[in-house]
Every structure is written in structure tokens, then in C-alpha cells.
Amino acid sequence: MKSIKSLQLASGHNMRSGDLIAYRGSGLTSALVRWATHSEYSHVGVVINVSGQFFVAEAMILKGVRITPIDKLPEDFERIKTPIAFSNSALAFVFNHLGDKYSIVDALFAAVGLKQVEHNGWQCAEFAAAVLNRCGFKTEQRRNLTPIELIDAVKN
Q: Which helix (H) or strand (E) holds 56?
């Protein structure tokens, strides 16, 4: 059974396309991400509204780029409001990249603060930032941000 929070979010309660969904996963990979990035968050995705239904567009390890219905999210998430006006170009970008692979190398580079050498797939914050960039939100030059770096950029 889903929590009241996830049911409210699934119904669109205060939800907007372009908001971020941040996770605090409890598994080993999530714990390593939180430790390496000195953050309470291990994953981030972007809310999209498709025909009145809310989803999260995200790049997931072992699954690649996908969209997930809000009501199917794990309970350990938080919605981060963004100042952007979501665009059709951002939605098209999401759909054009569905099925792209996840890049563990990019995630490792992001965790230690290095720029990408070449693009070999997406890690979660990199994909979310690319979606927001299509709405006019600019992130720092380093392409592969960590979840907390993207969240901090949105909040500031």
C-alpha cells in the first residue's frame, strides 16, 4: 500500500513538470553514492506530465533511461520544486532518449568531481540536468553533476 504522500503526488497534488524527485535509497549502491557525494540523496529524476498522468524521467543503473509512474516510486523520495517553465523540447528530449544506457563510468567521474572524457550513456543527475537545460535552466560547466549538486543548483 502506498503512503498518503505518494498518492497525493500521483494525483498531481502540487506537482509540476520539471520538478525534481530525489531518492534516499537504502541499498548498498545508494549508500555508496551518498557517502561519496556527502549527501543524503543517492538518485534524482525529473517529473513529467503526459496526458494528465505524472511520471519521473530518470536514468537508472542497469535499466537506463526510463519513465516511471509517480505511484510506483519507492517511499523514500522527496519532491524538489524548480523555478523552470517546462518545455515541449524537454519532453521530446525525454522521449528521444528512452532506452539509452546508464553510464557507471559517468557516475563514478561525477562522484569524484571529474569531467566526462566522452559521453557513453547517462547517469541520473546528468540526464536530469540535460532535461532542465532544455527548459533554459543552466547548470555549471561540468556536464556530469551529482544528485546533490543538481539539487543545490535548483535551490539556489
A: strand 53-60
Q: Which of 85, 135, 140, 86 is nearest to 113 (CA)?
A: 140
- Residue 156 burial by Cβ neighbours in a 10 Å radius (0-12, 13-18, 19+): exposed
Dist. CA 9–CA 136, nearest whole Å: 25
pLDDT digits (tens, 9 = 90+) for 7-57: 555 555 578 999 999 887 666 666 566 666 666 777 899 999 999 999 999
Which segment of 48-62, 72-86, 103-117, 136-150 scores lowest on mean pLDDT?
103-117
Q: CA–CA separation, 27 vs 17, rounded Å?
A: 28
Q: Cell 502540487 identifies what position? A: 14
Q: Which three cell numbers stand for residue 82?
A: 524548480
* Alpha carbon separation from 5 to 11, 20, 79, 114, 150 (Å, rounded): 10, 15, 10, 36, 23
CA distances from 129 to 1, 46, 54, 139 (A): 32, 9, 19, 7
